[in-house]
Protein 1
Amino acid sequence: MGPSVTGFVDEDMMVNYMYLPLTGISPGPVMIMGTATTQGMLDLNIMLDMDLVKENTPPTISIETNLQGEEAEWNLDGLKFTLSGNVIDPDGQDVTLMLWICDGTTTNFDRQNLAWEIQVSIANCIQNDVQSPYEIIIKATDESGGETTRLLQVVDPNAGAVDNSGDGDSDDGDDESSGILPAPGLIATLLIGLVAAGWVSRRHD
């Protein structure tokens, strides 16, 4: 049952217009119920069916961003990220949420009043060799079937990272090979020594 409104009839028996708010009323057929009261008269209960129908208004989804303007907060392991926001249904109906990523779905949302939060794994993306950015779809559905969809793309900050760990090994190999060869100064010393030894031997002869 929706909110009640009180109207008054003036002395000339002219009925004032009454505006009936639809806040808090679920979508669908609307019946009008009321009671007429006055001094010296029994209460008169009325019910009016005027073929009124309240249309459904779909829910709205908002997604929060961080100081960098990014919607995803990545875990340190780089395999999960967190999304958060709010979902509001103007008609006050319960709303279910669903998320799609890399052909996988999840409904594992943490809900508190209007706020929601979800941790999303990219394991399915890695298994299916889906590259960043990842396309995310979030759908909100109310009790009357009204739907709202949000589409966003999440960029993996670790995508395209280059592993330079192999460079150190090649440097070590170069150091080892260079350590096997004698230093240039040592070669010059040996040559001078050999020349001097030959000169002395010729003088003795």
Protein 2
Amino acid sequence: MKDIIQLILKRPMLFFSIIFIDIVFIFLYGGIVAYFQDKIADQFALMSPSLISLTKQDIFWNAPFLLFTQQNVWQYTKQIIIQSVLLYTCMLLLIVLFQGMTWWLSNNFFKKINFVKFIKKFTILSLILFTLYSILTVVDFFLAVRERVAERLSMPISELSQTVITIIIFTLIIYSLFCFSAQRFVFKKAPWKNLFLLAGLIAFVFLVLQAFLSVLNNISPAISVSAGFVLLFPLIAWARINLIEVFYGMDS
């Protein structure tokens, strides 16, 4: 960890460039997600009256599938699919362009890498991993719909399946970070012990930050938000560089 800090101190402009790109990415990503979520939410609001005539049993057992099988619902489902595909495309482009740049710059702390070759690898990784993430998110959404319907109808339902999906999504996110660090899919040939130790350290640092911000929030929410903004992005950049360092020198 000391070596990483020394690397950062030797090339502060590179480090701050990474932070700047991360900040721009987060704002653009958040804005685009909010825009499309509003569009999708509007379609769901228009769809709701069409479900009133259905029986409670139909809604409970077939809630996700009614979006595709009911003629008066399909017109809204179609718009939801279109908006979701647009959202997926925009998010993937942002990840490739902005996160591809930050991961490439982070690698430059250790060695120079051809940008075009790096982006090609990063794009393939992002396309596969983000598609898996999107599919799991859709499954999680359908399970959430069924759970909310069950709550409204006071019908018992197990939350185990949604919990399992949530764990899988979290695991996929962690695995994706490992893949981006190695510039390839990592399987057996990976320093798993060092990765999990580093992941534990990073998690601990972020938990300390969260606790610190919670204390500040009790004093002044404005100060807490400002401190979080100042501290969070450097920590993200630091964590990314540490992950790359674990794979540095290995054959990719």
